[in-house]
Specification:
Length: 197
């Protein structure tokens, strides 16, 4: 198993990054939040989960071990594979996932593409006793919002847009999205907006 990769970011796309490790470029599938933190040419270390299937070998990358642990735990629920688990981590932070499961919040889980009401209920039932409690209860939301804006702006700049264009797009989509929107939702909305412009 490959527990982590450390090396130079050789490329960043909308769904993955290439990290050069010892002269070999490893393609790592990542959530939008993780991709937003990566800069071409900079050193990085990503926690990874290596998924081997009959037809493929895929490396999934995460900002930290907590996100990786949640990704792997979600896959233990019936009917959840690595792609769906990655979609969960793209839409929700580990704490948001814990909070949704602890509060029996089916609606929060059904915001993940590919999870319906029954699937959400099954995930809650199967993971409730194993996922733990949220670490950031009552965290300062204004600080979180600033952090999200910074991450999305940096991600867009890393993908080739100017800081001015990135911030302008972010201003537009922030007004349209709920205050609870995470980095992934903000980044996707900003990319759609920039794509139209």
């Amino acid at each position: 198993m490959i527990a982590y990769v450390r090396g130079t970011v050789a490329a960043v796309s909308l769904t993955s990054a290439v990290v050069e490790v010892g002269g070999v470029g490893l393609q790592v599938l990542c959530s939008p939040a993780t991709l937003a933190s990566l800069r071409h040419g900079q050193e990085t270390q990503l926690a990874t989960s290596f998924v081997v299937r009959e037809e493929s070998m895929t490396l999934f990358g995460f900002l930290d071990d907590d996100e990786k642990a949640c990704f792997e735990l979600v896959q233990t629920a019936s009917g959840v594979g690595p792609k769906l688990a990655q979609a969960v981590m793209a839409v929700m932070t580990p704490d948001a996932l814990r909070r949704a499961i602890a509060d029996d919040d089916v609606k929060a889980l059904t915001r993940v593409p590919g999870i319906g009401q029954k699937g959400a209920q099954r995930i809650i039932l199967e993971l409730k006793d194993r996922i733990g409690v949220p670490a950031t209860v009552g965290a300062d939301r204004s600080v979180a919002t600033d952090d999200r804006r910074d991450q999305v702006t940096q991600g867009l700049v890393g993908l080739g847009w100017s800081t001015k264009d990135a911030e302008k797009a972010l201003d537009t989509v922030t007004a349209e999205l709920p205050a609870s929107a995470d980095v992934g939702a903000l980044l996707r909305a900003a990319l759609r907006h920039l794509g139209k412009a």
